[in-house]
Amino acid sequence: MTHARGRFLTLEGGEGGGKSTQVRRLAEALRGAGRDVVTTREPGGSPGAERLREVLLSGAAERFGPDAEAVLFAAARADHVDHTIRPALDAGKWVVCDRFMDSTRVYQGAVGKVDVRFLSALEHVAAPNLTPDLTFILDVPPEIGLERAAARGKGAAADRFEKEGLAFHAAVRAAFLDLARGDANRYVVIDATRPADLVWRDIRAALEARLGLTLPAENAA
Ligand code: TMP
Fold this sequence. Notes:
The protein is α/β, with parallel strands linked by helices. Helices cover 53% and strands 12% of the residues. The radius of gyration is 17 Å and the shape is globular. Bound molecules: thymidine-5'-phosphate.
């Protein structure tokens, strides 16, 4: 039996924007509307890619330089797309993913200065003909985002990217906003400085408006 292809939603943005909370809320709401949902994340999302996540976020790949890091993110993505995302979409499921190709465009490309043609070749290899249907950018100033990320990971060392300075994270924020300006159809920028319930209200409204969905009513928070 053939199914309609599912939809592919991604959440993006700098550190501490509350992406994982919103991934959960999106999944709950979509399930409430009768959709089959798979939630996943990058780097990671399949057994092979989760192993590469450790290599990438521990900083073990950093000494090989930004081009090699970009290749490893692409290798993780290829495994994730083949084993998790594509099979779910082909089965008619909805996929909600915490970070995807836009993170590479921003962290390795706009900020890391890896050549854009090289990155677009990697995109073709890792995720041929796969672009998210809708991408939410959870926007927070880096001062707030880094403080939240530090509070969340209390006691744990900052990872490869969290440990970068404020200027790096300000550039990340600006690069995500630039991407959003370039394609108003795919990206929705959400002010994520606000409490999670208000962030969710905007995501929910955008989802209904952009994809013509009706989600089940929720009790006021
Ligand atoms: P997170 O899971 O806490 O969001 O951490 C993932 C980190 O990896 C985050 O700092 C962004 C970074 N990253 C890249 O640099 N390139 C990528 O392609 C992806 C998916 C993540």
